[in-house]
Design brief:
Elements lengths: L11 H14 L25 E7 L4 H14 L3 E5 L3 H9 L6 E4 L5 H9 L4 E10 L1 E5 L7 E2 L1 H8 L23 E4 L5 H11 L10 E2 L3 H9 L4 E5 L1 H6 L4 E3 L1 E3 L5 E2 L3 H6 L6 E9 H6 L1 H11 L4 H6 L7 H12 L17 H4 L1
Parallel strand pairs: 1-2, 1-3, 6-11, 7-8, 7-9
Antiparallel strand pairs: 3-13, 4-13, 5-9, 5-10, 11-12
Length: 351
């Protein structure tokens, strides 16, 4: 089921929650929300650019694409940018069949997805667009934990914890006898892939007995209403809901408990949960559709990095941004990760 709605940035959370509730009520497929501009049927654009641009994929990257789309369409009123939210994996399924022009991703493209694109003749340009920090949150009433180690997160989320670890006092003996309620992204999410890789040592390795959704707002609402709740999602969703949730510090390799923030994500001390996030561009669409080329150029233009910050993420430093612009200009295809993980990999070393 695909629904179309006109959403402003400030109204997105409420509107998407209502959309998901409606879909659940009617027994629909995985939700796909869209943000659109005006009818692109005209040809009298002052900028000379017109036409549709199809974007889908990660809910983590969605706020950036949404912000960019709104400003881009304001400057180019004869364009229409449709941004879907199918999760990173769901987005690649559409992208690698040529259904979309741009795929948002909160992890690098996997080898099997590269092969699917190759089989369909889809060449892609991989572009980092920002840094994010996966944020682990609890209910605001939780007064017993401030910091967790990666080993304790593994105790909670490992596949073998399913049906076995169900109380906070199983995580640390001095924690209270409080049922542990878990919330997190679904398996189509790049955030799920990165988190399971960083915490459990293998992408996709996770217990399955938790409330899962590709819509991060469902996780926000679940943890916010569960006294013993714990969940994780991208940093922007924490910032947007900061008063409703408590973000935990994570102990890094240096033994320091570090809270997620724009500063700790940018300087890398919020490890191992700080990560780059991406857009993938269909090379043929970029070269044959002027509106796609203009929108991609707009997204990677350092002059528009304030939109990344407004969306709750950390803009790329100047040296990396320069390399990203060069990848676009040179139409550099393929993935710098070659189908592998980005955990522990310095982006500046790979570009």
């Amino acid at each position: 089921m695909v629904l179309t709605t006109l959403l402003s940035r400030s109204a997105y959370s409420v509107a998407l929650a209502a959309l998901v509730a409606g879909l659940a009520a009617c027994g629909g497929d995985s939700p796909t929300a869209t943000t659109e501009g005006t009818d692109a049927g005209g040809t009298d654009s002052p900028s000379g650019i017109a036409g549709d641009i199809q974007v889908d994929g990660s809910s983590t990257v969605f706020p950036i694409s949404e912000a960019m789309a709104e400003e881009f369409m304001a400057a180019n009123p004869e364009t229409r940018v449709t941004v879907g939210v199918s999760g990173t994996g769901g987005g690649f399924e559409k992208f690698c069949t040529g259904e979309t022009d741009i795929s948002n991703a909160s992890r690098p493209i996997k080898q099997e997805e590269i092969e699917a694109c190759e089989q369909a003749g889809v060449e892609f340009v991989e572009l980092p667009v920002a840094f994010d920090g996966i944020t682990v949150v609890t209910n605001t009433g939780n007064d017993w934990v401030q910091c967790l180690t990666t080993e304790e997160l593994n105790t909670i989320w490992a596949p073998e914890a399913e049906g076995q670890v169900a109380n906070w006092n199983q995580v640390r003996p001095d924690f209270p006898n409080q049922p542990l309620g878990l919330y997190g992204p679904g398996t189509d999410s790049g955030t799920f892939d990165y988190f399971t890789d960083a915490i459990n040592g293998e992408e996709g390795a996770s217990r399955g007995d938790y409330t899962a959704s590709e819509d991060d707002n469902v996780v926000v609402q679940g943890v916010g209403s569960d006294d013993g709740g714990l969940g994780y999602f991208g940093y922007a969703y924490y910032e947007e809901n900061e008063g409703q949730l408590k973000a935990l510090e994570i102990e890094n390799e240096a033994g320091e408990c570090v809270a997620p923030s724009r500063e700790t994500i940018a300087d890398g001390t919020y490890a191992p949960l700080a990560r780059p996030i991406f857009i993938y561009v269909n090379r043929e669409a970029y070269e044959t559709k002027p509106q796609v080329q203009a929108f991609v150029d707009y997204q990677v233009d350092p002059a528009n990095e304030e939109l990344v910050s407004e969306a709750g993420y950390i803009a790329l430093p100047a040296d990396i941004s320069e390399k990203v612009v060069a990848r676009v200009s040179n139409a550099t295809t393929g993935s710098i990760y070659e189908g592998g993980s980005s955990v522990g990999v310095k982006l500046s070393d790979k570009l």
